Amino acid sequence: MSNASSARIELHYRPSGLLALAVSALALAAAACVWVSVLPAWAALAVVPLWAWALADLRAGQGTRIVLGGDGVATLARSSREWRAESVAIVEAGPLTVLELSGESARTRLLFCGDTLAPALRRQLRLWVRAHQARAAAEAARP
Fold first, then answer.
1. How far, in Å, CA of 97 to CA of 110, rounded?
2. What's the pLDDT tens digit per position in 86-107?
3. Res 1: pLDDT
4. From CA 44, how far away is CA 38, in angstroms rounded?
5. Closest Cα to residue 2, out of 115, 127, 136?
6. Rounded distance between C-alpha atoms, residue 49 and residue 77, angstroms
7. Residue 121 to residues 8, 95, 116, 131: CA-CA distances in angstroms?
8. Could you give the 3-state DSSP secondary structure of residue 89?
């Protein structure tokens, strides 16, 4: 575990093609449900802006570079703006991994899927976050 906590991890975020496909399939299913319901047929068009918004949200983090240093410092660079994250958290649910970075001036969540985060890198990321959360908790507990 000491290797994972001292290692430097660099991630380049790219949106997941699998998630975009899943969102598109859900939007198509929603439009079909509205179409066959008692609602007017034109109401199915309301799904289009919601679908576009969901896809835009998936692509919002494209080009983001995350560097998790061996010293516990995480930096995020997006479109010529770089900021330091004071808090890094990870949530995993099946093939999905959500990396949440928050600092004084910003907060962001990046969603990874199996096609954008290799299992070895996912494990490395999980170990890094756990090691540095434990270190931060121990430092906060000191008088």
1. 8
2. 888 899 998 899 989 888 777 8
3. 44
4. 11
5. 127
6. 29
7. 12, 13, 10, 15
8. strand
Using alpha carbons, list the distances in angstroms from residue 111 to 35, 60, 133. 31, 11, 20
Report the SS3 class of residue 117.
coil
Task: Provide the pLDDT for residue 2.
Answer: 47
Which residues does residue 84 pair with via DSSP β-bridges, in sequence order?
75
pLDDT under 50 in the chain at which residues? 1-2
DSSP-H helix ranges across 1-142:
2-6, 17-36, 47-59, 119-141
Residues in the chain, total? 143
Give the count of beta carbons closer than 10 Å to the beta carbon of residue 129. Answer: 20
Both tokens of 15, joined, read 């949106």
* Residue 53, pLDDT score: 92
Using CA atoms, how far apart are residues 54 and 77, in angstroms rounded to an integer?
23
6, 70 contact by CB (below 8 A): yes
Burial 96-125 (b: 16+ CB within 10 A, else e): ebebebebeeeebebbbbeebbeeeebebb
Q: Are 113 and 95 in contact (CB under 8 A)?
A: yes
